Amino acid sequence: MKDEGPPPAPAGDIRRWLELPLAYSPSVAHDGESVYYLSDESGLPQPFVVPARGGTTRRVIDGSERVGTVHASPSGPEVMLSIDTGGDEHWQLSVLRRDASGGRERLTALTAEPKVIHAPGRWRPGGGRYVYAANSRDPRFFDIYEMNLASPEHPRRLLEGDALHAVEAVRDERVLVARANTNLDVDLLLLEDDRIVHVNPHAGEQSVFSAALGVDGVYAGANPDREFAALVRYRFGGQQHEFLREFDGDVELVRRQPSSETLLVLVNHDGWSQPHLYDPATGEDRVFNSGPKGVIASASWYPDGSAFAYEVSSVDGAGIYRRDIATGKEKRLAGITSTPAATPAPYLRSFPASDRVRIPYWELAPAGPSRGTLLWIHGGPESQARPGFSPVQQCLVARGWRVISPNIRGSSGYGRTYLHLDDVRLRMNSVRDVRELVDELVRLRKAERGRIGIIGGSYGGFVVLAAVTTYPDVWGAAVEIVGISNFVTFLERTGVWRRKLREFKYGSLDRDREFLESISPIHRADQIRAPLLVIHGRNDPRVPFHEAEQLVQTLRDLGRPVELLAFENEGHGIVRRDNRFVAWERTVRWFDEHLSGPA
């Protein structure tokens, strides 16, 4: 591979890529005349609105903090927002109301408990009441509450318990709640007439990806006794679950059409999202094959059921679309219309690890000669690298880098067994996957030793640190973002509501402390040879900033090349555009400087 240097701007200018406005999380208004959604067009995730059939988009409020969700009421002009402060994830609820004259919306705060997380839920169909989860009683647990917007200071508790509860669906007076026993084992609870009914009693583990309330039961994407989540119905009355339809992949989103039992079902097929329209009465399954191909994370029905709004993320951009049911045609409503450079199509490939487990990975290759290879490790670990829009990855490709995104063992999307191949004492097998992938890329002449970098965030940040400490001679440069440097201090300091879920996957402080210490990268920091860039937000509630501080100080004491970018108003990730400019410009230059010389 020959170093051709970066292409001229704008294709390789990271600012041009970061200025592209992302549009996501659509929510159709009660009258079907407009669609609310979130966008970072202003430099920070904020609510916008667009006419339901397309037209001029409009920013709804001029806020200075991140908006995490936007939920339009199904029966009135209200829109519920969740807003945190400085990325701390202590979400507070506010409501948007348009005045009677049809003027601009006004924002009213409904909660003011900065130490409490108010997890958004669902509106009651009649309007004026909102059901959500919060950890106000005990920071370790989330109870279910119902708020009357006429008196928001006095919410009514619907469900209390020493567990993590979340609102999954609401229909009439029924509330469907998901109780997380672990990240991969969920109980569905139906709240009705002061009764609590366990909808999916099961032995062992059962994952529920999404659920909707029907007339006579619960529709869910779930995997009882299956590798992949199928479309399942749990009838009211406690009968055995029914498999309505199995797909080639996980059912990850289920949304019931208003005034009918027809279901919008999104299936994760090899990382791509495939939308289906399924009729439980007839078994008819209609597949939508037209339109942009990519990853769909959310969708919202129009109130008359004639169409649904959905977001699509692909290498061509990220935007909101309307899909008409009668014609099947789609129309773009908001989002990116063009990128600084066309990105070659992502290819899903795989290779056999040394223990014969097949490891999938995505490849984004530059159109011309490659100046080097970068491995991009996703977080989770129960997440998945998918073919969505990634401005930084695509900018790197435009600059001549080959970007490889592996789904090392423990990733979702490849079945229940694959998800558990990295549990606790198997943790370092996933790091070995990264090293063996490099060997495979070198064998295929898609990587050249000395010009290989690695980057990852959150759990992916741990993998970066574990890779550069366990296999120090492989890497020419590394970037670690909001990552774990010491599993013991991480588990001791992470948000108290998260510790139980994380111990399930990583190991218990009570039982596995010695093992967790042994695999923590900070204890092998003297092995690091690659120049390391560390990026972290000081308000991170998931992986506290202490993880970055202790690592950087240790490396500086050892005289290792390390640089820290700390952001005062960010949490678990960098969301403000001005901060993203700083973080990602430095990342691009880091690889330019250390893998191929000054750009």
Please write out the topology.
Blueprint: H1 14-18, E1 23-28, E2 34-39, E3 46-51, E4 58-59, E5 67-72, E6 79-83, E7 92-98, E8 105-109, E9 118-123, E10 129-134, E11 143-148, E12 156-159, E13 164-171, E14 174-182, E15 185-192, E16 195-198, E17 208-213, E18 217-222, E19 230-235, E20 242-245, E21 250-256, E22 263-269, E23 272-278, E24 285-287, E25 299-301, E26 307-314, E27 317-324, E28 330-335, E29 347-352, E30 358-364, E31 372-377, H2 391-398, E32 401-406, H3 416-419, H4 427-443, E33 452-457, H5 459-470, E34 477-481, H6 487-493, H7 499-506, H8 509-519, E35 532-537, H9 546-558, E36 562-567, H10 577-596
Parallel strand pairs: 31-32, 31-33, 33-34, 34-35, 35-36
Antiparallel strand pairs: 1-2, 2-3, 3-4, 5-6, 6-7, 7-8, 9-10, 10-11, 11-12, 13-14, 14-15, 15-16, 17-18, 18-19, 19-20, 21-22, 22-23, 23-24, 25-26, 26-27, 27-28, 29-30, 30-32
Question: Can you walk me through this structure?
Answer:
The chain has 599 residues and is of the alpha+beta class. The protein has a domain at 347-596: Alpha/Beta hydrolase fold, catalytic domain (Rossmann fold, 3-Layer(aba) Sandwich), CATH 3.40.50. It is 18% helix and 36% strand. The protein is built from 10 helices and 36 strands. The strands form 8 sheets. The chain has an 8-stranded mixed sheet with strand order 29-30-32-31-33-34-35-36, with helices on both faces. A 4-stranded antiparallel sheet has the order 1-2-3-4, with no helix packed on it. It has a 4-stranded antiparallel sheet with strand order 5-6-7-8, with no helix packed on it. Strand 18 (217-222) and strand 19 form a beta hairpin. Helix 6 (487-493) packs across helix 8. The longest helix is centred in the last third of the chain and has 20 residues, at 577-596.
